[in-house]
Every structure is written in structure tokens, then in C-alpha cells.
Amino acid sequence: MIQKLSAWFEERMGWKPIWTALALRNIPKVNWLYTLGSATLLVTVNQILTGILLTIYYVPSPQDAYNSVAFITNEITAGWLIRGLHHWGASAMVVLAGLHMLRVVFHGAYKFPREITWFTGLGLLAVTMAFGFTGYLLPWDQKAYWATTVGTRMLEVTPVIGDWLLRIARGGEELSAVTLTRFYGTHVWVLPSVLLLLLGIHLFLVVRVGISAPPTPKETDEKPKVWFE
Amino acid sequence: MSTPRPDQENPEIVAGQRVLGVVPGKPPGGDRKVLSEQEPVMVWPHLLVRHGVAALVVIAVVLVLAIFFDAPLREIANPTLTPNPEKAPWYFAALQELLSMFHPLVAGVLVPGAIVLGLFALPYVDRTSTIEPRFRKVAVATFTIFMVVWIVLTVIGFAFRGPNWGWVWPWQEWYGEL
Known about the structure:
heterodimer, A: Cytochrome Bc1 Complex, Chain C, 9 helices, B: mainly alpha, Helix Hairpins, flat
């Protein structure tokens, strides 16, 4: 049955070479630490799906934002669960991306020829933080409002352009309806676009260049040349 | 005689690997010749099965958290009522803690700037010809120290700070916000 179905699709889509190229590749023997990247990706998918569902009821204006989030939480079937998944998924995404970066650093996986994978990975980490920061404001409750006040105030310390950055982020001197729509637009349009672009390059390179091997002690114990000696 | 690996006898797989095979070039550091040294494995099933298991674990953890701990929703934002302490999201807690300790120029500009620059420069700073951590002691030690400091600052800023950013013991008063 499955074979028939796969043959039916193969005749119409010719997907087998793609599967072959993606999945029937040789890679070095790897361990569980190599799943941190895909785990981050999975949480990202969770954020996209639950995020799309949340936008159906969410309204980005100061009075309605709070009420719509309360409505999602209290009235809509499983709305509390969708919101919970999005809320906890956000923290999980930051944590998993951080752990993924740790693995890459300790394994030296950022070295040639994987520099671009590393740079796009850093970009993705920054995007993740920006997602968290802009999403934090959207419920427009006390916690959201004041955390964003504190967060945007940090921009002000930048020399020369600090004031300018602060006004760009807030859309004025203080947090207002403009800040909320700015954060919302950034959260649901700008950042996802950047995310998908960087993620596309990142994943393409993971396949194209291949993953690095876990560092294993060589049989000869000869010490390689190191730059700091 | 050892049996040939499946990829060696199947011309389709060989062709597929040529399409998405590694790009040419000579590594000054880094590693690309590993396949000949180690016993290689196939992405399917070796890695994909692990991805699947890890995915299930992550889904389970996030689902359990979402079911048992509701996403918080406080009272509606009130610009005239400043809470004490004002806390940034937890992943900025380290930065906020730094800002409370040092001049804003140091904590808000120099340190974050150095972190970003350092991370981007990493492939060019750590130019050892090996990926083994024991031969990359400077890179590994620097990063470990940075991570430990960052985690400690995050925990302090998140759980150990109360009104006026004063020290509180989290088991006595809790001000952490997720």
C-alpha cells in the first residue's frame, strides 16, 4: 500500500532524488547533541502555527489587545492551550537555540567551511531574541508594558544614536498605541520574513556543506599547532 | 572483506551525493575529511530517528508546561502605575543586572558590543587546525567563563532581585517573571 502510494507520487512529483540527496547522505557518526538544532526548528514551527492561530483573534490596539488576549485565554476553546504553547515555546526556543550554539562552540563546528552557517545561526539567535522582545509587549498587561519600558530604555544608552533608537522602537517618547502596532508588525511580518530567509540559508548549508564530526581524539597523540603558543 | 556500504553500490545515491556533496576547498582549520577516517552513517535512519525522538521529547515538555502552567496575564497596562521592580524579559535579565552594576556605557554598549563582535569573529580568532576541545583551551575556556557569568547574572536578575533592584532571596519573596 505504502509502496503503491509512494510510486503514485513519484510518477507525478519525482520526489525520490530529493529524498535521496537529503536523507541518503553519508554523515559522520553523531550523538544526541546534534538534535538541538532540529529541536529548535521544531519549536519554531510550533511558534509559527500557534502564532498564526493567535492572530485570528488578537487585535493590536491598547484597549483591544488586552481584552482580545483575555478573550483568547478565557473564552475560546483551547485558546488557553494555544497561548500556553506559544508562551512556553518562546522560552524553549531561546533555551534550545542557546544550547545549540553551545554545542557548536565546544565542537568547533563554526570553523571552515561552515562560517556562513555560523553567521546565519547568530542572526537567527538575534531574531529569536527580537521575537521574544516584541512578542512580550503584545498582551498589553502591566508586565508587558513595563518590561518593554525597561527593555527599550536600554537602547537609550547607545552613544550618539541612543535617543533616535529609543524613538524608533517606541514610535514616540513613551510607549503608546504606535509602539504596539510597531511591535506587532515587526513580530508577525518583519521578523518571520528575516527568520525564513536566514533559516533557508542555514539549513541549505547544513545539507550542502554537511555537518561537522564530533571531535574525537586522534590515534596519534601528536599535538597540533595552536595559535596561542 | 567488508560488505560495501549501501551508498557505494547504488548509483542513484552516488549521484544524489554529488548534487549536494561538499563544496571543494582546502580547510585551514575546521574539518572536512572526517568521512574517510570514521565509519560514516546515513542521515536516514541514523540522524533522522534521533531528530524524531528529540522532537517528541520537546513537544511533550512544551505541552506539559502549557497545560499545567497558564501563560500569565496580569491587569491591563497602566502607564501611571510603575511596578517595583521593573523587570525585563528573563533572557535580558543578565543585561539588566549588568546595567545595575556598571555605567550604562559599559553594560549597555561595550559589553553587548564585545559579545556580538566576539561571536562573529570566532571562526577567525580560533584558528587552531583541530576541532578537539583539548587543543582549543583558550577558545573553550573563554566561552565557558562567558557562559557561566551570563547564566549567573541571568539567575540573579531573574530571581534574586526585588523592589528597587535590591537583593531578595527567591524562597522568601518571588519577583521572577517569565
